[in-house]
Design a protein that fits this description.
alpha+beta, Lipocalin, 2 domains, 10-stranded antiparallel β-barrel, 10 strands, DUF1579 domain-containing protein, DUF1579, signal
Amino acid sequence: MQLKQLMLVGAGLMLSASLAVAEEQKQDMKAMMEKMEKAGAPGEQHKQLAKMEGKWETKTKSWMEPNTPPMETMGSCEHKMVMDGRFLKQKCMGDMMGKKFEGVGVTGYDNTSKKYTSTWMDNMSTSLHVMEGMAGDAKTINQQGETTCPIRGHMKLRSVMKIVDDNTHVFEMYGTDDKGGQEVKMMEITYTRKS
């Protein structure tokens, strides 16, 4: 008889402990979900990116070598917020060196890392460029990344996006190759709002 009572008491304690653990896990899950929702909610940085939505004319200056005149091309881009206002998607078209140019980029702000992240791909390369960085101020985003250039080899990249006003922004790209180690301006794109 004592053994039966002891087993019943033991089973009761195990059941109570299991229920307590389940309740604690339920509370932990709720706290985890709240953190995830907060981290995933669009904030002020996303509102800043949304100001760049629209159709743009682009004037691109590209430097193939330092201290030489830039090659200038015209194009167009459409910027649109996607994923419920979390990311700015850029679709650009134009001509480069007599060939049709198409590119797609995505820029977002990661609430968890507190950094802007951008990706870029186009039909002139098989590289997917990834950049990451911080806001310099309310109108500037500074990012860094790396790439392998078919001409210069491995390069460190630095970009600066300057918001001039609601109808103009300027993107600058700088590169530093492993050979010379000196940073050079590679590209400047001026975006002027069409609509």
